[in-house]
Design brief:
Pfam families: Tnp_22_dsRBD, Tnp_22_trimer, Transposase_22. This protein is α+β, with helices and mostly antiparallel strands. The protein contains 8 helices and 8 strands, in the order H-E-H-H-E-E-H-E-E-H-H-E-E-E-H-H.
Length: 234
């Protein structure tokens, strides 16, 4: 029986270790994909749960507020800003409340109001007429109405901001639809994009649009590499 040399045994051992490392890396990638998929599913579920909710920002707080008072406040806002909608629609509120107090009770800004409707269509109708009106008020003072979304989705919507502003300035009629898709009119058709990579792929086939958006897309790509560059310099 032929005995293996020390070098051969070492090479076999190294090969076994390399195979094990390869398996560990593959398993790690699978776990990362699973975690990311689960996080995305959780975000989608949370956004779906919040979908009938309307978020009101800047509405002053009153002493000893209860649900009845808050509902009256909402009705006053609808009547003040959307009288036609107030006459035509039954708001069908399921629940209305203030957001929890996260900071000092003496903070100057009022807590946000969250309204949950029985049907998502009512929330969407209010948001649509609010966009058309442009300025929404409560007793003459400006307030804001938005969809109630998860923190991750809100961040995704904010990241569209620079591109949205460029497209709006150039009259592409951009819109950020639920939950965080950017859509705009291009060559007579409405195009929608779930993320910026899809948009990058699209603009490569539209030189004029690529030139228009290259700075915003390049800035974002630069930001992705910025932490690595800083670490390298240290």
């Amino acid at each position: 029986m032929e005995l293996k040399t020390t070098q051969e045994l070492s090479e076999e051992r190294i090969s076994e270790i390399e195979d094990q490392l390869s398996e560990i890396k593959q398993e790690s990638k699978i776990r990362e994909k699973r975690v990311k998929r689960n996080e995305q599913s959780l975000q989608e579920i949370w956004d779906y749960v919040k979908r009938p909710n309307l978020h009101l920002i800047g509405v002053p707080e009153c002493d000893e507020e209860n649900e009845s008072k808050l509902e009256n406040t909402l009705q006053d806002i609808i009547q003040e800003n959307f009288p036609t909608l107030a006459r035509q629609a039954n708001t069908q509120i399921q629940e209305i409340q203030r957001t929890p107090q996260r900071y000092s009770a003496r903070r100057a800004t009022p807590r946000h109001m969250i309204v949950r409707f029985n049907k998502v269509e009512m929330k969407e109708k209010i948001l649509r007429v609010a966009r058309e009106k442009g300025r929404v008020t409560h007793k003459g003072k400006p307030i804001r109405l938005t969809a109630d979304l998860s923190a991750e989705t809100l961040q995704a919507r904010r990241e569209w901001g620079p591109i949205y502003n460029i497209l709006k300035e150039k009259n592409f009629q951009p819109r950020i639809s639920y939950p965080a898709k950017l859509s705009f009119r291009s060559e007579g058709k409405i195009k929608s994009f779930a993320n910026k990579q899809v948009l990058r792929d699209f603009v490569t086939t539209r030189p004029a649009l690529q030139e228009l958006l290259k700075e915003a897309l390049y800035i974002e790509r630069n930001n992705q590499y910025q932490p690595l560059q800083k670490h390298t310099k240290c």
